[in-house]
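Write out the bound-state structure for manganese (II) ion.
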Amino acid sequence: MNFPDYFADAEASLNDAEYVIVGVPYDKTSSFRPGAKKAPEEIRKASWNFETYNFKTGIDLRDIRFHDYGNVDVDNVRPDEMVKIVKDLVTQLLRKNKFPIVIGGEHSITSGVVQAFPEDIMVLSLDAHLDFRDKYENEENSHACANRRITDHIKVENLVVLGVRSAEKEEFENAKKKKLFYIDSFEIEKRGIKKVLEETKKHIGNKQVYLTLDIDVLDPVFAPGTSTPEPLGLTPFDVLDCIDYYSSQFVGFDLVEVCPPFDNGETALLAAKFIREFIRRTWQK
Ligand SMILES: [Mn+2]
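---
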């Protein structure tokens, strides 16, 4: 079956849109299973599966003006060049008062998006991995350094990481030394996501929040099609709760690390659903 090549219901022009979806098909630093560059295409396809109306929110996506910008051309560029390309584009979108929604690609794209925002922004990072290495395989802009690169732009106390369950010993030690605020998936399972979110609120307050959703924060049962799957993760409802909790504070969003060559379609479907729910649940908040 052939579908249009844009995200379902993204019918607004760039000028008229409130939200703008951008694909960054980049996976050059992938260390385990490459293929995340295919994600924007597969997530767009999956988006056509869903109804425009959602009974739970009562919101029809046809009432929301959003635009699909397509993909940026990052096919043959180095990681640092890719980060700059993403930063420049998102900077332009923010100048036009657009709400950016960026589809990766691997997690290395996130620092480009974050750099387009003011330095006092809060970042909520949902990720199975701490991603706090300074370099990985001699590359600073590796997916394995995603959270660390974010803290080159914002203060470490402005970053909150939820769902972590993997990192090397030195990363954990370094994160503790730098007082990185993170809550692991075992704590979330034990205390429940709502209690955990209340705790993050003490940290985040009423500030503007950027959300980076690494799909591997979910348990691989829900999202097996990802580059570095890690068991013992969150549920899709946990992620929805995070979106709802900060719905009035979000100013930008990326979803990364869907890896179509290892997916039977369910991970791309879940990603498309999250993007659709994110738009609905943040609209007019
Ligand atoms: Mn990750």
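---
The mean pLDDT is 96.
DSSP finds nine helices and ten strands in the chain.
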